[in-house]
Task: structure prediction
Amino acid sequence: MIWIIGILVFWALAWAANVRLVHSAYADTTAVRIAVPVLFGITILVLWEGLVRGFGVSQIILPPPSQVLVVFAQSTDLLWVDFVQTVLKGALRGFLIGACAAFVVALLIDRSVFLTRGLLPIGNFVAALPIVGVAPILVNWFGFDWHSKAAVVVVMVFFPILVNTVQGLRETDAMQRDLMRTYAAGYFQTLLKLRIPAAMPFIFNGLKIATTLALIGAIVAEYFGSPTRGMGFRISTGVGSLSIDLVWAEIFVSALVGSAFYGVVAWIEKRVTFWHPSQRQAK
Amino acid sequence: MRNLVPILTVLAAIVGIWWLAVAPMNIRPALDIAERGGAVVVPEGSVERRNVSAFKLMLDNRAYVAVGYDLKRPRLPTPAQVGEEFWKTTGAMVAKGRAWSKRSLIYHAWVTLQSTLWGFFLGTTVGILGAVAIVYSRVMDRSVMPWAIISQTVPIVALAPMIIVVSNQVGIEGRGVPKAIISAYLCFFPVLVSMVKGLRSPTEQQLDLLKTYSASGLQSFFKLRLPASVPYLFTALKIGIAAALVGTIVGELPTGAISGLGARILIGDQFGTPLAIWSALICAAILAGVLVSAIDIMQRVTLRKMGFVS
Result:
């Protein structure tokens, strides 16, 4: 009972603090902008901890976050091996291959109006399909090691990036292209100096969507067979052997990796497309 | 309509490449079968062949390439084989009056569709309510919005088995509810983001005008903000329903479900029947197409009735 009352009090206090922070004179400073969501996140963790302890939920169903943290600290070696296998070998390699392939294909398609018209609707359609379903087929083709995981990731990230890049390459208007003409710029000059920079916001949009898909693909592919390491392998065997706290530690790692991956791409985007209205900051 | 010819050409090219790829993909099992049947194959023995490239094998054994197009368990089935299997598990079942048997894909598609629609409904509701809260409360905006973004960077497949474990223990029978939760998780985000944009789309002038009419907050919500957000909502719903379907299939894949399209894929993998996987994939693609087009039609009709220029 004391746990329940405790977390309710904490919740009320944290919420009140957030309300005060947001309506205070410092609401627009960076510190407050970061502090408010962090406080909200801490509140959720405290609620989770308190509810699990207060209601005496079995650890086999839902371990409290503090215990997950302990397991995380104890098994960093294991988690690191899984991280290397799934993220560095599977997801990242697949992401790079898929992104480069999609970019090159987009440039080729873009040269032909006919292909653009034919491939764009199909690409849009395929991007909406549940492509994760091909995971068992690709695991069958490429074997259990990281190659099949990278292949699944390639297939999953290819279409969102392709569609976005093709759309981005069409972003320049006639005036801008005419200007390049008056400069006597050739196809490649126009491409490098005008069209690819103009396409960057779209390309990064595709890349950001693809970061999540890459992790999903790499983890799902491991459910269909993998060497005895990897995040997906650990999760599926962890659920079976009731070491749920280890599973939550893996989920914690995957959340961390997913956010970091997205953050890195968003950071690069900010550097590359600093000129775009959505990235400009009022000074 | 002017896109029809290019689309059909590209589709034909894809099927053509697929058909050509069957030969190198299936040459090894085809040669194994031919050899077992007493034919002379160069080089002999499947272990010997492992280090020879597929194209050299095809050149040396031209007579047996055709065998690869008629395998029972092909590595890559031909388009015709997939079409035949798909027809056998859908149309032919209907013709026999067994559309709802467990071997019919229509039954499995229906199971998947139900979870998808529940998840879609749940996710859309959460997304819209969240957007309203975010637009009207600065605290929500500042504290929830960053977490909504982070929630999408967490690979849902990692969470899927846990959602099923927890909901099983809480006493929820069956897999419908956890699947719907997973698809709602993927579906709410696009709706939330678009609705926040849409509800904020009225200009300062329009809001001021309503103030001069002395409209209450509720009135300006229902008469200005909500109608203005409808085009944004429909764009998000199209992304959302596709995401909801992905979520349901992901929810069925790693969890040992026995009915649903994802379960068909899983079972096809476990029993080594690639044709079942392929026809389930085709079925999922058709389902996605139907769902997205249905929302597209709703969008067109609604926007025209509301007077948005389309």
Notes: The first helix of chain B runs from residue 4 to 36. The mean pLDDT of chain B is 83. The domain at 105-306 of chain B is CATH 1.10.3720.10 (MetI-like fold).
